[in-house]
Amino acid sequence: MRTVVVGTRPPEIDALIAQRRARGLDLFDELWNGDYHMNPAPHPRHGEIDHQLVAVLYTLAKELSLVPLSVFNLGTADNYRVPDLGYCRSRPDSVFVPTAATVIEIVSPGDETFDKLPHYAEFGVDEVIVVDPETHTVRVFRGLDEVPDSNVLGITAQWLAAQLDWPD
Q: Which end of the chain, N or C, is surrounded by fewer C-beta atoms within 10 Å?
């Protein structure tokens, strides 16, 4: 479901956004070239897969001198997306991370995962790994092109999919 408010945002929407921020409910909200995307917390399967990915990839990424990140803002203050996980070549020191070597998106029902690919390409992300708990698939993208493996992590999509204990 999508709600679009055309024109000047009414004060009630600003109040809702402020209320979400005050309650810490805006962790997954994003700003797409000035358009506010209000995202709910993801499906519980998402969290289960997130924990497994951290366990599988953490040591591998550290051996490659990559800095692991959990939920973070990739982009600028007026144009950012919030990937589920990511790996950078150096430790970022700002709220808005300018780029990453790899970002990982875990699909939740109705989310905008694939709509984020152009943004990641625009901000110089080397590759995006998309993990879908519903279809039990892992896909790797360089720019908008799907490829079989991660050059950054040195693994194949098929290998990573086989490491996961997919929830039903």
A: N
User: 45-94 pLDDT, tens per residue?
Assistant: 889 999 999 999 999 999 999 999 999 999 999 999 999 999 999 999 99
pTM: 0.88
Alpha carbon distance 30, 61 (integer Å): 26
Provide the token pair at 33.
């070239």
> What span, in angstroms and rounded, lies between the C-alpha atoms of 62 and 162?
21
CA 22-28-30 angle, 5° bins: 95
Taking only the tens place, the pLDDT of each residue in 85-116 is 999 999 999 999 999 999 999 998 888 999 99
Contact 121, 135 (CB under 8 A): no
- Burial of residue 18 (number of CB atoms within 10 Å: 0-12, 13-18, 19+): exposed
- Residue 111's pLDDT is 87
